[in-house]
Amino acid sequence: MSTETPMYKLVSGTLLKTLMERTGTGERITGRKLAAKVGVPHGTIGALTSGAQQLLPEDKAKAVAEAIGVDFLVLWIPMERAGRAFVPAQVAV
After folding, report:
1. What is the pLDDT of residue 38?
2. Inter-residue contact 79 to 6 (CB < 8 Å)
3. Most buried one in 2, 34, 55, 57, CB count within 10 A?
4. Cα 5 to Cα 15, 58, 75, distances in angstroms
5. Residue 77 belongs to what H/E stretch?
6. How far is C-alpha 2 from the chain's CA centre?
7. Where is 8: in which H helix or E strand?
8. Per-residue pLDDT, 85
């Protein structure tokens, strides 16, 4: 049995930005406030919205969704489905 923390991939940085502009309560949340609620450095939120970072551990991903008032799977894709690991497409260098 693996003790690794499940990771989740952000659906879209643009979607996260849009949802931060109007959360489930109808209010806007800044990257700094979201980071403080989630317990991550504010640079992490900036990296997620810009696309520089796409992955978060399950607890942090759930905290992001909860803080902006949306269903967890609206924003996040499980890295494992049906026992298969999600492998992002490779980018040519």
Report:
1. 94
2. yes
3. 34
4. 24, 7, 18
5. strand 76-78
6. 22
7. strand 7-10
8. 54
- Contact indicator for 33, 46 with CB cutoff of 8 Å: no
Name residue, tokens 């008032």: 69
Q: What is the DSSP string of 9-74?
A: EES-HHHHHHHHHS-TTS----HHHHHHHHTS-HHHHHHHHHTS--EEEHHHHHHHHHHHT--HHH
Q: Are 5 and 57 in contact (CB under 8 A)?
A: yes
How far does the chain reach from its first CA to its final CA, in angstroms? Answer: 36
Inter-residue contact 8 to 56 (CB < 8 Å): yes
For 75, which DSSP code?
H
Cα separation of 44 and 40, whole Å? 7
Q: Can you give the pTM of this predicted structure?
A: 0.79
Output the CA angle 23-64-68, nearest 5 degrees.
Answer: 10
